[in-house]
Amino acid sequence: MEGKKNMYGSETRKGDVMVLSKFEHVKITGISTVVPPKEINIYDEAQYYDNNIKKIDRMRKMVGFWKRRIVDEDVTASDLAIQAAERLIQQMDIDKNSIDALIFVVQRSDHSAPANSFYIHNKLGLPAKCIAFDIRQGCPGWIYGLWVSSALIESGSCKKVLLLAADTPSVGIDLGDRVSAPVFGDAGCATLIDYSDKIVNSYYNITVDSSGYEAIITPASGFRLPYKKQHANCKVDINKDLYTPIKTKSGRLTTLSSVFMDGLAVFNFTINHVPKNINELFDNFKLKKEDITHFMCHQANKQIVQAVSNAIQFPLEKTPTHTFENYGNSSIVSIPVSINDNLKENIINGGDELCLCSGFGNGLACASAVLHLKDCYLSGVCDYKKPADHPTREEIINYWKHKIAESE
Hints:
The chain has 408 residues and is α/β, with parallel strands linked by helices. Helix content is 29%, strand content 23%. The chain has a 6-stranded mixed sheet with strand order 6-5-7-8-2-17, with helices on both faces. It is globular and about 70 Å long.
């Protein structure tokens, strides 16, 4: 089916690309999550709502806005992921030499190159035989990472994979943007995935509607529309268009260097594609929804989570939304944060947790899975503690100035 031409002259294809997968010897054995200690309460931002508490109350009831966690400016996604990994390794007494692969799912990298996973590999002290690579993905990213990890294990290439995921969507966001600012929180997680001699079934459905790849995008964030080097004798600011304010229909000012989100397109994708993706998963593998103990939906917001749950006719009482209310939408990490926020006591008490998980967002993509979490170690949602030797911006600048100056 033909699609319309996009900005770059290529034609966007309509319809989903679908990947259905079943793995039989892959076990999720541990999940650790960390969130920054700094908390923002929406009632502390009353000035953005004309100091109208009733208006805030309505937003909280309908959308679920309440609290979110955000990083300090000098803390990156890698920092959160490293601490989540260190906690998991220590608490589960994992032999680092037994880890065959390190995968890092990230959007906001420390550097454009090399892959952040190499930096993390070094910081964790992993062996040379442990491969490392990044997956660049947004809200469906944790499920993507699980799928790739499971494929590596089921193929016989690996027996133990350390999957890390982290995101800091709050960084650089305009607090006056009431569409995005009250939504996003920051978090990091580490997941240990092992080969299992016993049969442990897990099921995946990943779909992509690439016609919507412009629906969530930062136009000037890479090499398609880069900041150009300004020559000393050039009297015209050649980068002006990248940061000059653009007024939206609502009157909000933004720039080409800021995240653009077509809210209506994303909402329509969620309502029309996500339930279909989940139902295909159940129909293809003949799974029964009554066997599912919890639906861990990506915590986009309370309204969307409930809409998806209703669309697939799954009980709302088994579909948590208060994780969004307490931590915000933590992007890639929202599902593992929700698992740790809601299931820790169930797992400890021996519950046989069979969870439906679904993440959806930029791409546009949806990734759903049915996972066995029985006997999986869960850390709970822990506060990130900035290490005493955490480098300041000035220290990093001076380090690189010295390193470059000393090189040939």
